[in-house]
Amino acid sequence: MSDRAVRNLALFATVFAIVVVILGAFTRLSDAGLGCPDWPGCYGFMHISSQSEHAVEATRAFPEQPYQFDKAWPEMVHRYFAGTLGVLVLILALLCWFKQKRTTVKQSTFLLLLVIFQAALGMWTVTMKLHPLVVLLHLMGGVATLSLLASLTIRYHFNLTSPYQEKSLSIIKRLTLMGLVIVVLQVALGGWTSANYAAMVCIELPVCQGAWLTNSDFISGFQLWGREAETYEYGILDANSRIAIHVAHRIGAIVTTLFVSLLIFHLFNSGLKLVKGFAIIISVLLLAQLVLGINNILMQLPLFNAVLHNATGAILVMTLTCLLTVLHMPEKVGQDHSSFESANSKSIKFKSPNSEMVDSEVSVYE
User: Fold this and answer.
1) What span, in angstroms and rounded, lies between the C-alpha atoms of 209 and 190?
2) CA 20 to 30 Å from 148, out of 55, 67, 73, 93?
3) What are 88-144's pLDDT values in tens digits?
4) What is the DSSP track for 287-335?
5) What is the distance between the terminal CA atoms of the chain, rounded to a whole angstrom?
6) Which ranges constitute the DSSP H helices of 161-238?
7) Which of 57, 64, 75, 204 is catalytic?
């Protein structure tokens, strides 16, 4: 199979992963995370049943959690799509191993291991009754899977070599890496907020419960392990702990906005069309996240808005990962910036004054 075919498969898997992330967010935010009390089936079935006799049988098998179709179907649809994504990642890994290109072999192998771990986290999410740390890890594993698939697509798109000189964008490389780390931490804070049902503990702007820090218990709010409960559905933390989590997410949003804005400024001033393209995408995603986040509070967490907020955060991480991949791929031997632009130019023939045919190249980059 050609590199182009592998790239197209990776691109399809990336788009499919976005769908899986959206389905996961919808399942979690619609309180359907325990829509199926067992794993990998649902009340003993491998399909979603709407028949009354099956519902009676399911309720008899799990009397402590009566069958609810409106919560079972989001959970099972998410599992179907996640399982299909796992098959796509396996096929990609096999193709990369067959081609024996070191970078893609390592990345695809890590992706496969990550997807296997994701399946285990999906099981533990159910068996551990939505433990917040497991839910958070499951969310971040999904974002990581999406980002690495997009990165693999980028590598094949550029034939595994960087379009820019190794040292030409050193400042932007460092800023992009720092920006990615900050955005990942902010997404994790959002995941922790959601996993502990702390999104609606603060319903006013810009303060929270009359003050930013007065009623916050950060030690309790960020205790990752050690609390025992029969179920963690709808949260077990007190109000002050949830306020601390929500406030931390708001402060993180401010820090993230400021730093990513600085990164965008440098990207626009790079003088490179591809990098400017990334700057535009990141700007749109950042603005969308701010609007969606504010709307979550003003509209008291509408489901559609909350799902979009989750998806946009994941896509922002994916975009920064793609930019970092472009900047850090190894430079092709003997290639400089101008040679890459020439290789990606459109050739146009025209007649010179002496009537000879001359090839002229019009670069698609600035």
Assistant:
1) 19
2) 73
3) 999 999 998 887 677 788 999 999 999 999 999 999 999 999 999 999 999 999 999
4) HHHHHHHHHHHHTT--HHHHHHHHHHHHHHHHHHHHHHHHHHSPPPTT-
5) 33
6) 170-195, 218-221
7) 75
